């Protein structure tokens, strides 16, 4: 997010990460065996999902949970984040050359795509009615700073 672009809302900033998630997951499921390409794409996807989820939880879901209207829509989205975390953990623990690795990756890709589609076409509209315009812009800046901070952090040190 360019510093000069303070007009972006939290939803526009989140969509940028969503595009990366779609791209990485689509490319990942086209890989085979324990290849450098598979390792690199998995690391890119894992980092993207992690940084995105941490920042999104803090700067979209938590502010929304402060209102009754935001509570229910947020619960569902958080449960999907949890499902993705579990699949990432399984993939991390499975050998890249294992026959089941690709089916797990396909399941993750499906969950990611489903979650993003639901977020962009239902959740964002509902959240947009709850959050004031100025807060949407402030949250975009806070999200982006947090996202960049966590993008390449060591995930193991945070558990």
UniProtKB/TrEMBL annotation:
Domain spans labelled Hemerythrin-like: 9-126
Pfam families (UniProt xref): Hemerythrin (PF01814)
Highest taxon listed in the record's lineage: Bacteria
InterPro entries xrefs: Hemerythrin-like
Listed name of the protein: Hemerythrin-like domain-containing protein
Organism of provenance: Acinetobacter dispersus
């Amino acid at each position: 997010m360019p510093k000069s672009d303070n007009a972006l809302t939290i939803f526009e900033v989140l969509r940028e990460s969503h595009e990366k998630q779609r791209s990485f997951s689509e490319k990942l499921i086209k890989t085979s065996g324990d290849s450098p390409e598979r390792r690199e794409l998995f690391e890119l996807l894992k980092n993207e999902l992690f940084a995105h989820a941490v920042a999104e939880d803090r700067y979209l879901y938590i502010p929304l949970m402060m209102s009754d209207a935001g509570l229910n829509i947020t619960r569902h989205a958080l449960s999907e984040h949890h499902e993705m975390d579990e699949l990432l953990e399984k993939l991390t623990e499975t050998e890249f050359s294992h026959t089941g690795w690709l089916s797990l990756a396909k399941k993750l890709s499906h969950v990611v795509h489903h979650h993003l589609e639901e977020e962009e076409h239902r959740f964002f509209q509902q959240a947009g009615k709850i959050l004031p315009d100025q807060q949407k812009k402030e949250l975009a800046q806070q999200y982006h700073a947090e996202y960049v901070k966590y993008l390449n952090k060591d995930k193991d040190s945070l558990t």
